[in-house]
Design goal:
By secondary structure, the chain is α/β, with parallel strands linked by helices. The chain has 8 helices and 8 strands, in the order E-H-E-H-E-H-E-H-E-E-H-E-H-E-H-H.
Length: 206
């Protein structure tokens, strides 16, 4: 599945880029940053609510914020289908995953490149998907970190061994060069921002 990252969209003409995703992609990837958990601020509820009014594809919100548990109900009310948070953003990951699922959303856990795959092990049975960051969370347009390919293979093995049904999503540095390698390693969902929205023809890029 292809999930264009709306962080790279044209915010002066957001309706145009939303329609590109509606017509060509599988998911809207929404990066929510608070300037505390990551050193950047992106956008919040007003933008997500605006996209929700016209989105015909599911919204996949990636929370790069402290205390993600505080906002679960509100994202569910807006109509977000998938909600993920960073493993180290809360001291109650299991409880937070359960709460997300209770609202009817799919629950995801995210780890940065410096976190080992086996840190996910205690929570895999509660996850509908895992996001492996292949750059450090906080900014678009970063260079792909090569050892991410090995981490995907490692996670695919762990998912198979545990009988988990979690999908593997990769976020960061997904380009025409890295995408085929990621899929070959076992990725189910590709998040791509600049490669899609900076392309001469975003529809063709998707």
């Amino acid at each position: 599945q292809i999930a264009p990252s709306m962080l790279a969209a044209d915010f002066l003409h957001l309706d145009k880029d939303v329609e590109i995703v509606n017509e060509n992609a599988d998911l809207f990837h929404l990066d929510i940053m608070d300037g505390v958990f990551v050193p950047n601020i992106s956008y919040g509820f007003p933008v997500v609510e605006a996209i929700a009014t016209v989105a015909r594809k599911p919204m996949d919100a990636h929370l790069m914020i402290v205390h993600p548990e505080k906002y679960i109900e509100r994202f569910a009310r807006i109509g977000v289908s998938m909600l993920s948070f960073h493993l180290n953003a809360t001291d109650k990951p299991a409880q937070t995953l359960l709460h997300i699922r209770e609202t009817g959303m799919k629950a995801g856990l995210v780890i940065n490149p410096d976190m080992p795959v086996d840190s996910l092990y205690p929570y895999l049975h509660l996850c509908d998907y895992i996001i492996l960051m292949s750059v450090y969370a906080g900014f678009g347009g970063q260079k792909f970190i090569e050892h991410s390919i090995e981490k995907v293979k490692e996670l695919r093995k762990l998912i198979n061994e545990t009988g988990s049904k979690a999908l593997i999503e990769v976020d960061g540095g997904v380009t025409f060069e890295t995408a085929p390698r990621l899929v070959k390693a076992g990725v189910d969902v590709l998040v791509s921002g600049n490669t899609v929205f900076s392309a001469p023809d975003p529809e063709q890029a998707i």
